[in-house]
């Protein structure tokens, strides 16, 4: 190959590179202007179920004696709950423990005296779902009579809150749409298509009943524990992104 050919090839290659470099890089189109809003919607629903914990605590000189006493009480408690038409699926052991009780004597003649076991403590906790709220107070009262001596935490809930959550979601979207329209009107622009929607849901503790209603239930002639179920409030938060129409 001659020197002339090499020179010509070099000029051709250099020209190609120059032509490639002269082509401007394709710039990405700018992101369209957006309006982003968030809003919260809520809906209330009367609870149809209560979850409570019932604990039996026994102490004795030996672990065997404490366990036997605890088992006897728990057997009576579970039989009574089943007699209240509480299903097996609504009864669940939530905790069980056997613990020694220690005595820590005061130091004697400046010497530390080793601790000693003076007894044992057995604790059994049962989680109970009560679907007939009208029987809740009576069940708690009967449980104490049978030997329950700890627990009693009551949480009112709903077996199926989907209806309330759907209502809260619609409320949240409606509020967000109205807020976006207000912003667009104030800015003198028009809303375009929705590019993104996201949500977060949560529930709130029951709202207390009116004081007069609670007082009325507390003055009943039976020995049931007075209870106020109130309402559960479910909340949904949504965030929506809108393009601004050209």
CATH class of the largest domain: Alpha Beta
Structure summary, number of beta strands:
7
Shape: elongated
Chain-averaged pLDDT: 85
Q: What key phrases describe this protein's structure?
A:
single chain, 246 residues, alpha+beta, Translation Initiation Factor IF3, Alpha-Beta Plaits, 2 domains, 4-stranded antiparallel beta sheet, 3-stranded antiparallel beta sheet, 7 strands, elongated
Would you mind describing this structure in some detail?
Residues 1-21 form the signal peptide. Keywords: Signal. This is SIMPL domain-containing protein. This protein is elongated. The chain is built from 5 helices and 7 strands; from the N terminus they run αββαββαβαβαβ. It has 2 domains: 34-46 and 161-244, Protein of unknown function (DUF541), domain 1 (Translation Initiation Factor IF3, 2-Layer Sandwich); 49-157, Protein of unknown function (DUF541), domain 2 (Alpha-Beta Plaits, 2-Layer Sandwich), CATH 3.30.70. It has helices at residues 3-22, 63-83, 136-146, 162-187, 211-218, and strands spanning 34-45, 49-60, 91-103, 116-130, 150-157, 191-207, 231-244. The chain has a 4-stranded antiparallel β-sheet with strand order 3-4-2-5. By secondary structure, it is α+β, with helices and mostly antiparallel strands.
Summary of the model, kept short:
The chain has 5 helices and 7 strands; from the N terminus they run αββαββαβαβαβ. With 246 residues, it is an alpha+beta fold.
